[in-house]
């Protein structure tokens, strides 16, 4: 049972990256998300960077409809490989003047934390749409894998380099889609990207890659939220712990295990907490205390550091609270979103391996801070990585980039950017920074 708890890694466990990234421009193919439509999709040449006249409501994307006031939802499915799960999905929220028509040329793309989907960030995206952005959430390949899957050999090829290529395709297609809706040129679409947790690490690695130098894939402003790229060298104990984590993950990959089941375990506990909250939990991690299902869920959320073999920070937790309840988030909504598409059970191990390699100072694992040259706002969440994460951005990136700002927001936990009752306060702070920079 102890090992079961140790392996409960997370609603927002971190993203990673691996070997240096090549700048080969991949082909971009957009498929209609509607299963009743043509599967052939549209091919785009990133070199020409123009909006195809054939990009239309019948072949480029699906208009889902109004979701909040005059904010409309669109879905775009982008094929990124030959496998059945090799596609990414862009969910776009934007204010319309009329169906299939907007005047908006500012994109804001949200890169989710690992094992989390658009549904977890939809409120945030709708908020930014209301502020005048064409807001996108980019769901990665792992969000396509169902809970009943048993063969994960395809994840052997799901390296971080592949995720960076996928991110490039997502950014390029978002430009094309916004250009089509606005009637403007794709090259005139400004892009801001917000990455959370693993999404923040992916965003940072992307900013340092050659993909960001391409017109189609360039990002104008970046907002990594709650991630650690490198620890302050004085944090020797935390560095050594992540080096041990790296060794454990690497051994698992070498033995042929390419996926993690952290969220699968968490989702099982969430289901028990939702369907039988007052029942006695099958997992009892505290000596002398018998926990109900909902109490175990609260313990995992609010005392995450105490139940992890390699905690990232001394007080790392997902949400603030105690056994009697979580403080800032509606528990019922959190459970519902988690169990109805907001989380997915399986994720690639390569991402966790790279994260641990970076934080554990493993030889060969680094992100070139000199290439992170866009205006950057690092947001540390007080109950998550907080100031531990800001160190690298301030010291390494800030040494060459004078457009780096960092803030620490509240003490609510690593998940507080998305579903907490006061999350809009943080969204507004980020919006203000974007508009001032």
Q: Strand content of the residues, in percent?
A: 15-25%
Strand count: 15
Catalogue the unreliable spans: 1-28, 30-54
Q: Counting H and I runs of at least 4 residues, what is the number of helices? A: 11
CATH topology of the largest domain: Rossmann fold
Biggest beta sheet summary: 11 strands, mixed
What is the typical, i.e. mean, pLDDT?
88
CATH structural class of the largest domain: Alpha Beta
Helix content: 25-40%
Overall 3D geometry? globular
CATH homologous superfamily identity of the largest domain: Alpha/Beta hydrolase fold, catalytic domain
Alpha-beta content class: alpha/beta
- Cα separation of the termini: 50 Å
Report what the structure shows.
With 437 residues, the protein is an alpha/beta fold. The protein is built from eleven helices and 15 strands. It folds into two domains: 2-12 and 233-354, no CATH class; 28-229 and 369-436, Rossmann fold, CATH 3.40.50. 33% of the residues lie in helices and 17% in strands. The strands form three sheets. Strands 1, 2, 3, 4, 5, 6, 7, 8, 9, 14 and 15 form an eleven-stranded mixed β-sheet that branches. Helix 5 (236-254) runs antiparallel to helix 9.
Task: Briefly summarize what is shown.
The protein has helices at about 1-5, 120-130, 160-180, 200-205, 235-255, 260-275, 295-300, 330-340, 350-360, 385-395, 425-435; strands at about 30, 40-45, 60-70, 70-80, 85-95, 105-110, 135-140, 190-195, 220-225, 260, 320, 325, 345-350, 375-380, 405-410.
């Amino acid at each position: 049972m102890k090992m079961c708890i140790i392996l409960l890694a997370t609603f927002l466990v971190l993203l990673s990256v691996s070997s240096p990234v090549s700048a080969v421009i991949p082909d971009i193919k957009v498929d209609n998300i509607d299963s009743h439509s043509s599967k052939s999709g549209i091919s785009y040449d990133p070199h020409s960077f123009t909006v195809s006249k054939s990009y239309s409501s019948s072949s480029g994307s699906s208009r889902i409809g109004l979701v909040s006031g005059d904010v409309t939802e669109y879905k775009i499915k982008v094929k990124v490989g030959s496998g059945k799960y090799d596609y990414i999905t862009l969910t776009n929220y934007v204010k319309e003047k009329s169906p299939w028509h907007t005047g908006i040329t500012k994109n804001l793309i949200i890169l989710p934390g690992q094992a989390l989907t658009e549904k977890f960030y939809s409120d945030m995206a709708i908020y930014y749409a209301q502020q005048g952005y064409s807001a996108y959430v980019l769901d990665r390949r792992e969000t396509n894998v169902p809970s009943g899957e048993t063969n994960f050999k395809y994840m052997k090829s799901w390296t971080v380099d592949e995720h960076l290529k996928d991110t490039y395709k997502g950014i390029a297609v978002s430009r094309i889609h916004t250009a089509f809706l606005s009637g403007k040129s794709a090259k005139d679409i400004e892009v801001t990207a917000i990455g959370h947790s693993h999404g923040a690490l992916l965003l940072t690695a992307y900013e340092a890659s050659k993909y960001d130098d391409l017109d189609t894939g360039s990002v104008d402003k970046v907002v990594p939220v709650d991630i650690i790229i490198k620890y302050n060298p004085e944090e020797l104990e935390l560095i050594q712990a992540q080096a041990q984590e790296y060794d454990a993950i690497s051994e698992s990959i070498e033995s042929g295990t390419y996926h993690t089941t952290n969220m699968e375990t968490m989702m099982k506990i969430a289901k028990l907490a939702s369907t039988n909250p007052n029942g006695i939990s099958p997992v009892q991690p505290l000596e002398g205390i018998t926990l109900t299902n909902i109490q175990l869920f609260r313990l995992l959320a609010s005392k995450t550091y105490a139940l992890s073999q390699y905690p990232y920070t001394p007080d790392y937790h997902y949400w603030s609270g105690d056994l009697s309840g979580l403080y800032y988030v509606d528990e019922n909504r959190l459970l519902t979103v988690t169990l109805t598409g907001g989380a997915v059970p399986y994720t690639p191990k390569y991402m966790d391996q790279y994260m641990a390699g970076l934080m554990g100072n493993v030889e060969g694992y680094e992100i070139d801070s000199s290439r992170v040259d866009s205006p950057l706002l690092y947001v540390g969440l007080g109950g998550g990585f907080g100031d531990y994460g800001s160190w690298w951005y301030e010291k390494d990136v800030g040494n060459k980039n004078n457009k780096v700002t960092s803030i620490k927001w509240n003490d609510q936990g690593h998940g507080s950017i998305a579903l907490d009752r006061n999350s809009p306060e943080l969204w507004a702070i980020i919006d203000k920074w974007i508009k001032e920079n």
